[in-house]
TrEMBL record:
EC number: 2.3.1.50
Cellular localization per UniProt: Endoplasmic reticulum membrane
Record carries keyword Magnesium: no
Organism annotation: Rubroshorea leprosula
Annotated ranges, domain Aminotransferase class I/classII large: 65-424
Record-given protein name: serine C-palmitoyltransferase
């Protein structure tokens, strides 16, 4: 099979080069390229090339319309929308692109207060606070919630923003096996001397951090079991819903709604606006006391410029559409569509013999490549046929667990998905990643 891969000569110089920086530098994955349109179901990828090994400055640009299988545009709001876009434009005209000020100075507009009320209501918590970036929401909030003398127990596959927030907090960090409540319990038991009254436990505070849907795995959190372990050991639950809010649950309210968990049992609900809502920023939702405390103490609230009013308006409008408050049924249709699309695509890939990670209903579906050397071929061969995929390996995943991480959107049509399946199937044969026998096609 490797004979078919001429043109993908070994790109390694040594171990470190191959497996880390140079691999990414040389792949020129389609998502490393500029994009010249909205990240909707189809988008324009700009290829820049020179025919002289980059030695001349003379470069040619080519725009290619590609089927987008990589953006987190789960509900299709990251495109012109009849309800959201005019409202975001009005906000842009009224407030300008930036508040040029932190929240506690001149950076709280009426749109910001409306956004926080709207998010709190939507996720089912008494209050919420919004930040300009999802990454910063995790990395800046954890150090405010906990410090030296505290214990963070983190899922082994948590996002880098959580890892950095945990490290920056100064708390002790323990990791539990990915999405395994029994191992979480084991770690908790080791940390709290068994049989002792709670008041004698050695930690000032314990926070267990999990994600709603894991971004590199497509797996849905085993939240009901995790919540019950945390209740037993009186640990706080911190839930990052970056990929689940808006994407799963009957009304898009995330994994609590999907799995029937009472939001009162999740102490800190974190999420981002950068996926399902087609905007930017992040939020923390929780009790009034918690949010009040964060507003007085969190440096990212006190010292950073607030989220752009137009971006905030986009989120409010998207939530209104999801809840049908725009007077249409588009929100419900989008939610039904993302579920249908995700389940169809996952089951078709599995029938073809691919190893696909993740759970039903999850719009993230990693196709396992394993060997990172297969990344360039997979990505480029798909792009040649106008299908843009994201491929990942170390450090985002373990070294030999490279994968193509497909993200499905409600804006993909059935024809889009069928085209994508045809291309992925051909490329899968070429690079040799159909690890299971294909299911015979029904006549
Ligand atoms: N948490 C998780 C689980 C993520 O996957 C991401 C990024 N995709 C973030 C937080 C950071 O969010 P943002 O991209 O909105 O900064």
């Amino acid at each position: 099979r490797t004979n078919n891969l001429q043109g993908y000569a070994p790109i390694c110089l040594d171990f470190e080069d191959f497996y880390t920086r140079r691999l990414y530098l040389r792949i020129q994955d389609c998502f490393g390229r500029p994009i010249s349109s909205a990240p909707d179901a189809w988008f324009d990828v700009v290829e820049r090339y020179s025919n002289d090994n980059n030695k001349t400055l003379k470069r040619t640009e080519k725009r290619t319309r590609c089927l987008n299988l990589g953006s987190y545009n789960y509900l299709g709001f990251a495109a012109s929308d009849e309800y959201c876009t005019p409202r975001a434009i009005d906000s842009l005209k009224r407030f300008s692109a930036s508040t040029c000020s932190s929240r506690v100075d001149g950076g709280t507009t009426t749109v910001h207060t409306e956004l926080e009320e709207c998010v709190a209501n939507y996720v089912g918590k008494p209050a919420a606070i919004a930040f300009g970036m999802g990454y910063v929401t995790n990395s800046a909030i954890l150090p405010v919630l906990i410090g030296k003398g505290g214990l963070i127990i983190s899922d082994s596959l948590n996002h880098n923003s959580i890892v950095n927030g945990a490290r920056g907090s100064g708390a002790t960090i323990r990791v539990f096996q990915h999405n395994t409540p029994s191992h979480l319990e084991k770690v908790l038991r080791e940390q709290i001397a068994e049989g002792q009254p709670r008041t004698h436990r050695p930690w000032k505070k314990i926070i267990v951090v999990v994600e709603g849907i894991y971004s590199m795995e497509g797996e849905i959190c085993r939240l009901p079991e995790i919540v019950s372990v945390c209740k037993k050991y009186k640990a706080y639950v911190y839930l990052d819903e970056a990929h689940s809010i808006g994407a799963v649950g009957k009304t898009g309210r995330g994994v609590c709604e999907l799995l029937g968990v009472d939001t009162a049992d999740v102490d800190i609900m974190m999420g981002t606006f950068t996926k399902s809502f087609g905007s930017c920023g992040g939020y923390i939702a929780g009790s009034k006391e918690l949010i009040q405390y964060l507003k007085y103490t969190c440096p990212a609230h006190l010292y950073a410029t607030s989220i752009s009013p137009a971006a905030a308006q986009q989120i409010i409008s998207a939530i209104k559409v999801i809840l049908g408050e725009d007077g249409s049924s588009r929100g419900a249709q989008k939610l039904a569509r993302i579920r249908e699309n995700s389940n169809f695509f996952r089951s078709e890939l599995q029938k073809m013999g691919f190893e696909v990670l993740g759970d039903n209903d999850s719009p993230i579906m990693p196709i396992m490549l394993y060997n990172p050397a297969k990344i360039p071929a997979f990505s480029r061969e798909c792009l040649k046929q106008n299908v843009a995929v994201v491929t990942v390996t170390f450090p985002a995943t373990p070294l030999l667990l490279a994968r193509a991480r497909i993200c499905i959107s409600a804006s993909h049509t059935r024809e889009d998905l069928i085209k994508a399946l045809e291309v992925i199937s051909q490329v899968g044969d070429l690079v040799g990643i159909k690890y299971f026998p294909a299911e015979p096609k029904k006549q």
